[in-house]
Write a structure and sequence with these properties.
By secondary structure, this protein is α+β, with helices and mostly antiparallel strands. The chain has two helices and six strands; from the N terminus they run βββαββαβ.
């Protein structure tokens, strides 16, 4: 089941995407956010500040969400978004 992520880039531009879990189209919505996810496909990324590390693939919703969390400021996650533990920022 897809879930929606709303966030903002460092320049203040906002986006909204549906994370689909489909290998052929991991996210639908904002062209810029979709391009960001596609840019990082095949790279490794930590799913949370303490790990584990996974390869970013379209059919892994957690890895797609990790890309959005790392490179943008997430404002809201709605639907069945995977959860993670937040650590205090230093």
């Amino acid at each position: 089941m897809p879930f929606t992520v709303t966030g903002a880039f460092d320049d203040g531009a906002t986006y909204s995407v549906q994370v689909t879990g489909r290998a052929d189209r991991p996210a639908i919505g904002s062209y810029r956010a979709v391009a960001l996810v596609e840019l990082h496909l095949g790279e490794t990324i930590a799913l949370s500040p303490t790990g584990p590390v996974r390869t970013v693939v379209g059919n892994n919703k957690e890895s797609v969400l990790a890309v959005l969390r790392k490179y943008t400021n997430i404002l809201e996650e709605s639907g069945a978004a995977p959860r993670r533990a937040d650590l205090p920022r230093s």
